Amino acid sequence: MFNLFKSKASSFLGIDVGTKSMKLVELESVSGRPRLVTYGMVEIESSIARENDSGGNQEDNEKMASSLRALLEKSGARALDAVAALPNFSVFSSVISLPRLGEKQLAEAIQWEAKTQARNGQGSGPESNEVTVTINSPAAPAKVTGLSASTSIPVEPIPPSNYTFTSDETTFSWDAAQNADEYWIQYKQDGVWDASWTYVGDSNTRSVMVRPFQMSRDPTSSIGARVRARRLPGGNVTLDGSVSDEVLMFIVQRPRAATMTDPANNSTALRAVFDGQGFVQNIPDTEILYKWIPEGSRYENQYRINFRRDGGVGQDSNRIDDATGWENGAGFTPFGQLEATYRHSTYLVSANNKIEARIKACNRSGCSDNWSNVIAVNIVLPPPGSRTINTISVGVATTEALDTTQDPQYRQLTNSSATTKYYRLKKTSGTGGSTLSIVDGTDTQITSNVVTQSNAIIFSVDAGQTRYIKFTPTSSGSYNHILYQYSSFPPYEGL
Fold first, then answer.
1. Does the model's pTM come out above 0.70?
2. What does the mean pLDDT of the chain come to?
């Protein structure tokens, strides 16, 4: 009875003898599953069934057999193996509980329990040495719920058209299902389900790593999954739960580096103040707007901006990422934002006089392998009137160390008298070259009463006024000079 459709016979009869009728059904096995062939029913006298149960007589037995033959002929049944059901008053029944057993052990246990029940006279119905045992079928496992997936599948492009995984953040997880002994998963790639289910694990399993797929370059590509629980009551019997809801996991391409563009107002450069140790921050002028352009990837969720101050020269060692001097800290901006304003400190920047920036794109799969191009913002000295400038004295030989890679140098001259004074500065020696000009405190060039000559400049300074002699290097080296003072302009005497 327990393996009805695993025997060699291809069809079976089921016969039910009741008090008023006899019923018949014929089933055949098709691919291991029952299929109805025919069925029928005939009425019988109630007295025949009851008297036949207690032994009856030959005549009643013949009537019963005749009814059965008529039923077989009427239904057209052809099977030779039969399973019969008797009325309740002809048997006694009992419900027993058995542990999970294999098929052979289960049959032996039922035989033992049947003999025990009959010997002890338990159950309902007349005493007999036969017993009908009803075993409650185990419940199928509940539907798997709570199925969820990683929000994306990080992948790396492989030319020309496929992706493969580069990260292990690719899992499906679910909640425990009641009565589950094991879990199975079925995958769907780009809308097509796998032909078979894959075993995941036992009742304690709650997640599975996604197997390596190759995905199309289409950003809408996805991997779907659904899970079902299975129960194993024993033997060859298995009970499957209903299939869970489907979830999808979409690919995410590893981002590419962006391209930085010149920051706004780069031509103005960055103003800073030199304090003897390096430039220090001049707050109103140190906010720089950086911009960038993504290089063909739509999958970034943030950008990482990295800075280098003065080429790494003079920076604190704990802020340097590597030998190239880039800082180990970085600023982050969200996806979709293609510009950012950063406030910089120019402290200790004195050698190369610049701040550099580079950028890379990142998402949950990591950051792009390469940084973008480098954008440099030059640091220039503020106007001479806003800082301390070395003074110059009349008739004293003075030397400037000029460097064409550096900013211009200045000498301050103040006329403290009550009358206008006239001056001439002249180069005396040195390998450095410079153009000479006269400027005010805002670095604006003065042209009135100014005469330039080869390696010399003539100019006037009004009473109580301050002017600056500006040395703009044309060649690097020393520049030795002397300042002369005169009482009139043009000062012909002494020229």
1. no
2. 76
